[in-house]
Amino acid sequence: MFRYINILLVIFVGSQVKVYGDEYNITDVTETGFVETFIHKCCPLNQSITRRMRCQESASYNFTGFKVYDDDLNVISETLDDVILEPGKLQDEHFKDLAIDVSFLGANIYLMHNGVLKIEFPNTYNGFYTIEKDNFCVDNAVNYYRRPATLHKYYAILPDPPESPPFNPILFCSANGTTVFFLLLVLIIYAMLPELHNSCGMIVIMFVVGLLGTYLTLTILALAFWAAKSCMIMTSVIYYFSLSSYFWLTVMSFDIWWTFRRFVKVRPPRQGSETAKYVLYGLYAGVIPLLMTVGLVIVNNMNLKHLPWFITPHVPDHGCFLEGGSKFVYLVLPMMILSFWNWVFYVLAAFKERRLSRRTAVMDTAAAGSLQAQHTHKMRFTVYVKLSVVMTLYWLIEVISFKYPAIKAWYIDQVYAGIIGFLIFLILVCKSHIFKMLRNRYGSKKTSVHHIGPLSKIESDNTVKSQQDPATLQL
C-alpha cells in the first residue's frame, strides 16, 4: 500500500519540478520576467543526500524551501521549483572530491535568480564568493533526527583563497630584532643626555617607545605558538603601540606648526605652558589609542553576524594578529588618516616658516624668539619630516602588498622592517651636536678641557633661551 502511495507521490512531484537529463534548455523566460535556468541537483531523481555525500532513496521531493534571491539579495517569489534541475552532479567524481558542504561554514548562502551561488562570510573584508553553476549542487538531505523540517544542502567547490604572504620566522625575527636593537640604542642615548629631556625630546622618545614596543612584541609573537587568549593579549599590545607611535607623529607635526604659528603672531610663550602642552599631547597620543584598543577587543568578542557588512578583527580565527582586510581596516587605515593630517600640518608649518623668514623685523623681538631658536626649530622641522617620510613609506608598502598581492610587496615589507630602526637611528642620533653632547658629558678630562670654553657658552646661551622657550634645544 505504502509503495503505491510513494509511486504516486513521485509522479506528482515529478510533474511539478522541471528535471532534465543530458539534454535540456538552459534558459526560459516566464511571464513574470524571471529567467529560468538549470541548477545541478546533487543526487539522482527521487534520491536525497546523506551526511557522507551519498545518495539514497527518499520521499522528500519538495524544493520550495530553497529560497531564490535577486541581485540586491532580496528574496523573490520564485523558488527552486521554478528552476530547471539537472540531477546526478555527485556522479562527477572530480566534483565530488573537491566539493564541500558549505552549510557548515557559518556563511550566508544565496541562490541567485541567474543560477549562480553566492556565499557571504559575514564580518569579513571582501567576504563574497561567487560560485558558478558547474561548481555547486543543491539537494534535500536525509534527516537523521526525524525532525519535521526538511534539511537543505549546498555542496560547492570554493575558489582558491588569495595567496598568503610567505612567513619565514628566521627572517622575520632577524629583521625585527635589528630594528629593536637600533631603537633601543636611540632610547639609551637620549636617556644619557639630559639636554634632550625637553618637551620636544620627550615627544621623540615616546614615538620611539611606541615603535620599540611594536617590533619587540611582534618578535616575541613569532617565536612561539600562542593560545587564543594569549593571542588577543599580544594583538592588543601590538595594536596599542603601533597606533601610539603614529599618534605621536601627529603630535610632532602639530607642535611644529603651532610653534611657527606663535612666532608669526608674535606671541611669547607662557610660563608653564610647555608642561601643560606636553600633558595634553600625552593624553591625546596615549588615551585615544588605548580606547581604540579596548574597542578592538570588544568588537572581536561580539557576534555581529546580523550585521554582515561590519568587519571584525577575527583574532585568533584568522591568525594571531590582524590579517588581510581586518588589518587594513583596523590598523593601516588609521595610519593613513593620521599620516594625511601629518602632512597637512607640515604644509601649514612650511607656509608659516616661509612667512616668518620674510619678516626680518620680527626676528629681533623677544616674542618671536632669537635667531638661534628659530634656526633650531627649522632643524626640528626637518627631523620631523624625515621621520614622517620613513613611517609613511611603511604604510604605503602595507597598502600595496594588500591591494596588489601579485606584486609580492611583502618581501619589501620584511626588508623594510629590518632597516626602519636603522633609518630612525640615523635621523635622531647621527648628528654632530649629539656627538658633541656625548663627548662633552662622557669624554675624557682632556677632551672636556679642550671644549669647555665654547661648549659652556653654548650651554649657557641655550639655558637662557630655554627659560624663555623650552622647546629651543636641539634634538
Descriptive tags:
single chain, 475 residues, alpha+beta, Methuselah ectodomain, domain 2, Rhopdopsin 7-helix transmembrane proteins, five-stranded mixed beta sheet, three-stranded mixed beta sheet, 13 strands, 11% strand, disordered N terminus, membrane, transmembrane helix, transmembrane
β-strand percent reads 5-15%
How many helices in DSSP terms?
11
How helix-rich are the residues, as a percent range? Answer: 40-55%
Number of domains: 2
What class do helices, strands and sheet pairing give?
A: alpha+beta
Distance between the termini: 97 Å
The CATH architecture of the largest domain would be Up-down Bundle
- String of helices and strands: HEEEEEEEHEEEEEEHHHHHHHHH
Q: Give the C-alpha Rg.
A: 33 Å
CATH classification, class level of the largest domain: Mainly Alpha
CATH superfamily of the largest domain: Rhodopsin 7-helix transmembrane proteins
Q: What's the rounded overall pLDDT mean?
A: 79
Low-confidence stretches: 1-35, 445-473
Kindly state the number of beta strands: 13
CATH T-level topology of the largest domain: Rhopdopsin 7-helix transmembrane proteins
Shape: elongated
Description:
This protein is of the alpha+beta class. It has two domains: 2-156, Methuselah ectodomain, domain 2, CATH 2.170.180.11; 169-472, Rhopdopsin 7-helix transmembrane proteins (Up-down Bundle), CATH 1.20.1070. 54% of the residues lie in helices and 11% in strands. The protein has helices at residues 2-16, 93-98, 169-192, 199-222, 228-264, 273-300, 324-358, 371-403, 410-428, 432-442, 445-468; strands at residues 27-29, 35-40, 47-49, 55-57, 67-69, 75-79, 84-86, 100-101, 108-112, 117-120, 128-131, 136-141, 151-156. The strands form four sheets. Strands 6-5-9-10-11 form a five-stranded mixed sheet, with no helix packed on it. The radius of gyration is 33 Å and the shape is elongated.
